[in-house]
Amino acid sequence: MRQLRLCIRKSLAIYLIMALLVLGSLPTDLMAALIPSDLDAAGLMVGADRLADIQKIQSVLESKVVAQRLTDLGLSMQEVQQSMAKLTTEELHQIATNLDGLQAGGDVGIIIAVLLVIALVLLIIFLAKRV
Questions:
Q1: Is the dihedral of CA 127, 7, 5, 115 positive or negative?
Q2: What is the distance between the alpha carbons of residues 122 and 117, in angstroms, rounded to a whole number?
Q3: Rounded distance, CA 108 to CA 94, Å?
Q4: Taking the alpha carbons of 29, 30, 33, 35 in that order, is the dihedral positive or negative?
Q5: Which of 31, 64, 71, 79 would suit a FRET pair with 19, their CA atoms being 20 to 30 Å apart?
Q6: In this predicted structure, what is the pLDDT of residue 17?
Q7: In this structure, is the dihedral angle defined by the CA atoms of residues 25, 26, 28 and 30, taken in order, positive or negative?
Q8: What is the DSSP secondary-structure string of 80-92?
Q9: Inter-axis angle of helices 64-72 and 77-86, nearest 10
Q10: Are 7 and 131 in contact (CB under 8 A)?
């Protein structure tokens, strides 16, 4: 009976380790969406609204955190505006699209995954000492 419990615990621990490794290796930024029918060959919107993209980027640039960080890097708002004016429509659209995916504090998912792995290792060590 004791050997059966030991075997079940070991196989459960191995299963959990493998499941966490598989789930941890999956990309987290995948989203399903409908594909618009007005895309060109490069996959960009044909009628991309440059003004809307500029307004979206401008609203992010006006936040206090971003403005302070740009100032810390030695850039003024005029220099940023001049650089934005030089960008093509496709580049502006790409920046505006990717703004939603930015995180101010870094990637929290990696930290959580590392903590889970550490907790799992400690749990396995604890269970191994009990048996």
A1: positive
A2: 9
A3: 24
A4: positive
A5: 31
A6: 92
A7: positive
A8: HHHHHHHS-HHHH
A9: 100
A10: no
